[in-house]
Amino acid sequence: MEGKRFIYLDHAATTPARPEVVEAMLPYFTESFGNPSSVYTFSQKNKAKITECRELIANTLGAKSNEIYFTAGGSESDNWALKATAEAYAEKGKHIITTKIEHHAILHTAQYLESRGFEVTYLDVDENGLVKLDQLKSAIRPDTILISVMFANNEIGTIEPIKEIGEIAKEHGIIFHTDAVQAYGQVPINVDECHIDMLSASGHKLNGPKGIGFLYIRTGLKLRSFVHGGAQERSRRAGTENVTGIVGLAKAAEIAFETMEERTKKECELRDYLIDRVLAEVPYARLNGHRSKRLPNNVNISFQFIEGESMLIMLDMAGICGSSGSACTSGSLDPSHVLLAIGLPHEIAHGSLRLTLGDENTKEEMDYVVDKIKEIVEKLRSMSPLYEDFVRKNVQ
Fold first, then answer.
1. Which end of the chain, N or C, is less surrounded by CB atoms within 10 Å?
2. Rg (CA), the chain
3. Contact 101, 131 (CB under 8 A)
4. Does the annotation count 328 as an active-site position?
5. Among residues 53, 194, 321, 328, which one is catalytic?
6. What span, in angstroms and rounded, lies between the C-alpha atoms of 330 and 161?
7. CA-CA distance, 165 to 148, in Å (whole number)?
8. Amino acid 333: pLDDT
9. Residues whose CB is less than 8 angstroms from the CB of residue 335 and which lie 6 or more positions away in sequence, other chains included
10. In angstroms, rounded to a whole number, what is the distance separating the alpha carbons of residues 234 and 255?
């Protein structure tokens, strides 16, 4: 690794737990280890702590504390929202609406429900990744029971018109779920203002621990138990509560919302600086996602005549952690479903790079990253017969 430098720019994948979060969690591994379901005072203190954490998280959303259900993370919350709604409201209808750019926790669950007799409409998005509200309205049927649209996209950072979608859902009496795993702690969210009925979030995306998340379920929804076996989480999700995780999640959420304004202002400045430099200094590059309606820390750029996986490996050798818009790094030869949905051809989608910032990143690091990207792109293109042909045809 060059100069043993380490620059972490993959905060959309996971984030480091803050020292304050670890400190808050530690006593619950050792001193306060009691099972909250036990009746003696020693354990009841942990039950009271969970209640305190539940109230704190509810307050960040403008929700009631009894509407917050702790889970193992975003994927479980997404599965619960879709499967439990399908089961509970199947008599009313078997039609679900989602989008083509959702996280696979939603898409694969939707496909599972299709195999169980449900119909799913997958909405298109525009070239910036925004849901087309007219298409949403026209997709609604008398038997539509659920609309699930992510708050912000994990790959291209586009923030969806959640309030407008919530209004459409409410007007038609349809349950509205949003996967807010990337957005929670990054942008303000009020479940009442946005008419959100269910919301998924995960701790490790906001400098909290892995293995903990929550699902907000609006009072009045008749969703049944997701995990059977005990009376935890008001008999809807059995299993001994992950007290240490819950404490860590609540502490991370508390810090994230207290620091949001200042932190995201800095992230936006660094994000825009990085985008502007790359687009100005690297030819045949394009930004993916909406230029302004995007997460404060998200940069996703496609480079023509480049293979994303090769770029990632070379960035890693330079001490830079990023991810690719291409799914080839996970063993698939297919490019990102999100990039294809916004209209990118396969060859350009394969050459995409996602860099997601955290509050510890600096402008000096951004300069180093841009310099390395320029070097890597130039080197990879020099080995590309496609680029050679392109230059020859365009120079003549």
1. C
2. 22
3. no
4. yes
5. 328
6. 30
7. 10
8. 64
9. 325, 326, 327, 328, 344, 346, 349, 350, 352
10. 27
